[in-house]
Design goal:
The chain is an alpha/beta fold. It has helices at residues 13-16, 23-34, 56-65, 79-89, 108-115, 134-144, 167-172, 184-194, 217-235, 244-250, 252-272, 274-277, 284-313; strands spanning 6-11, 44-50, 69-73, 94-99, 102-104, 120-129, 162-166, 198-209.
Length: 321
Amino acid sequence: MNRPIVSIVIETITREDYAQRSLADDLQPALDRVGRQTYPRELIETIVVIDETLAGRESEEIVRRYPWVTIVRSPQRNYFAAKNAGAQAARGSLVALLDGDCAPADDWLEALVARCQPGVAAVAGRTRYTGASLAACTFSVPDFSNVIGDASGAASGFNLNNVLFRREVLLAHPLDPRVRRNGGCYLLYHQLRAGGARIVYEPRAMVVHGLDIAGSGFVRKHFERGFDGVSVYEFDEGAVLRGTRLFRRFGAAALIALAGRRIVLDWVRVIRERDQIGISLIAFPYFAMVSAGVRLIELAGGLSALARRRRTALPMTASPR
């Protein structure tokens, strides 16, 4: 059986938010693990996407260390634009998306490709924060465990740090670069599902994500998710998201109602899917508290975005004479 060529696209914008080392050093864990994939080396194309703000010596150092890497430039400094640029430049019929601060298991690509059977548009893998610390175990649940599989193997979503697409699907349905940073994967998932695409889950396709939420990072991360979520509703032209019509009609009241609904659904998911998620029933009160806190932080971000939009939309009043 002929195996397909797979293009692994690694964006670099995520690591720029917190990295202190050179780009090549920060990409080393990801690229080293890509080089150890059990999938045939000659069938893997590795693309690193950079933007115009990075100096030429940064990309030159990557190619010096990893001569099998292709450098592609993103047309703008945007997470979703970078993913799109990599897919457009890819020569593989399948495109695997990975973030620069993630390290895949050695059989990651093999597992994703094996599940990409005829009729499957995308395969979602399993992502968790690296290490066994309390922070890693705690924050993996609200950040990544929303991606699980049902009895038929269908995925409940996907993270763009660990997903395989058929290239023609991603080219026909590119990520929306108008979204600042968060929510583009959620929007694309529902756009594909609305169009009848089949998306499956492969838990063996494991990726560990760098723990980038030290200090107040976790609060900031979820506040920004809520802030960007307002834009996602605005850019959802087809109204494929459950909350879009409510948001457009009721604004802030809809955000509050949707936050409450999400808290309840999070609790139900943690109880029903605790084996998939990897937590015990006795730990439910703790994770219920964490998930509720996360949703309230996101709500604060969404309300802040609405308040800012109102301020910028207010007409200028005439100066008193």
